[in-house]
Design a protein that fits this description.
three-stranded antiparallel β-sheet, 111 residues, 2 helices, rod-shaped, mainly alpha, single chain
């Protein structure tokens, strides 16, 4: 019986250490994935501007039509992205605003 209690105590201590470390690793992975998605959107928007694109707003709501370029030319983000990226932090869908040569991507991430 004593050995069983010792084993349970050891398992409890390991769980107390492992669970927060696991959660921290998950949160870090989500933050890195978020930063990569933003970098991908930034690069796509820069390529769009280099191709002579003007002011526009890219958003996931444009859907397959924007991906195929069947909407207004400025909505055709599909020429620059294989698919619209998902936000791994779950803090809202990405929106890219290109205005006056400046690129703004929302939502941001608190550092």
């Amino acid at each position: 019986l004593t050995e069983l209690l010792i084993c349970l105590a050891i398992i409890a201590v390991i769980a107390l250490v492992a669970v927060p470390a696991y959660r921290g690793a998950i949160e870090k992975a989500q933050a890195v994935a978020f930063d990569r998605q933003v970098a991908c959107l930034q690069l796509a928007a820069e390529l769009y501007l280099l191709d002579g694109g003007g002011d526009t707003i890219w958003a996931p709501g444009a859907g397959a039509e924007a991906w195929r370029g069947e909407m207004e030319p400025h909505d055709a983000w599909g020429e620059y992205l294989e698919k619209w990226p998902e936000n791994p932090l779950g803090s809202g869908e990405f929106t890219v605003v290109i205005a006056g040569g400046e690129i703004s991507i929302t939502p941001g991430r608190e550092h």
